[in-house]
Amino acid sequence: MIVWIDPGAVLAWGVPRLRDLPWRTTRDPWSILVAEVMLQQTQADRVIPKWQAFLDVYPTPRDCADAALGDVLRLWQGLGYPRRARNLHATAALVVAEHEGRLPDRLDALLALPGIGPYTARAVLAFAFERDVAVVDTNIARILARTIGERLTPKRAQLAADSLVPAGEGWTWNQVVMDLGALVCRPTPKCEACPVASQCAWKRRGLDEPDPAHGSAGVSTKQAPFAGSDRQRRGRVLAQLGNGAQPIADLDRRIVEGLLADGLVEVDGTTLRLPS
């Protein structure tokens, strides 16, 4: 698949504009993995203080693996989607048991770790090991669909992204393209600021409807309101348990059953508590 994007123009636009994000100053695989997991469905400004606090307590996979899951969940509170913390804790344990405490630098080995999918595995390879692999997050998928001018399957989106990575520029390229999507090729695009607007098939069509990004693989849809949702109810229960065990009878049974099924809580007699 050929995508008509000029990599030189994108890099010339993006390198001077790279956002100042703390995880961009490190090549430590564990630090980058923690950032990528936290950034899933969470905005960067909310992640920054939690990322720094998490790494202060768990600077290595071994530190995280040696901790109780309940302690990891307490530190995670405020980020939401606590299954991410459970998976990160499980990944740390597996890295210690099978990889001598160091994250592997192979795609297949990274994909075998709990909760790590195609995007996160490639992000670790690109941002920690500086490999020339393409990552496809929601921002990059939106750019690809619009420049090609059609909805994309996951396979086609990955092939398109792979075809664009300049040799020796894997780290820089992926960071720049992510910023292009986050700052310019947004759900409501700012085409006047885009370095590849003239090469964009959707722009050449006059931004006709439907937007080809809608329904494309990797492009997230608008989330349901948080207020009143099960996500909010689950978060409240976990926050209560962060202060100690609670009587099961005082808690929403349906929410408790979901948390138990996800391995995020455990029963101790007639009380519920965070895992020890």
Low-confidence stretches: none
Q: What's the overall average pLDDT, rounded?
A: 93
Order of helices and strands: HHHHHHHHHHHHHEHEE
CATH superfamily of the domain at 28-127: Hypothetical protein, domain 2
Detailed description of the structure:
This protein has 276 residues and is mainly alpha-helical. Among the domains are: 28-127, Hypothetical protein, domain 2 (Endonuclease III, domain 1); 230-273, no CATH class. 50% of the residues lie in helices and 3% in strands. It is built from 14 helices and 3 strands. It has helices at 7-14, 29-39, 44-57, 61-66, 69-76, 83-98, 107-111, 118-127, 138-148, 154-162, 170-183, 201-204, 230-241, 253-261; strands at residues 246-247, 266-268, 271-273. The chain has a 3-stranded antiparallel β-sheet with strand order 1-3-2, with no helix packed on it. It is globular and about 65 Å long. The termini are far apart.
Core attributes:
Endonuclease III, domain 1, 276 residues, mainly alpha, 3-stranded antiparallel β-sheet, globular
Give a topology summary:
Elements: H1 7-14, H2 29-39, H3 44-57, H4 61-66, H5 69-76, H6 83-98, H7 107-111, H8 118-127, H9 138-148, H10 154-162, H11 170-183, H12 201-204, H13 230-241, E1 246-247, H14 253-261, E2 266-268, E3 271-273
Antiparallel strand pairs: 1-3, 2-3
Quick gist of this model?
With 276 residues, the protein is mainly alpha-helical.
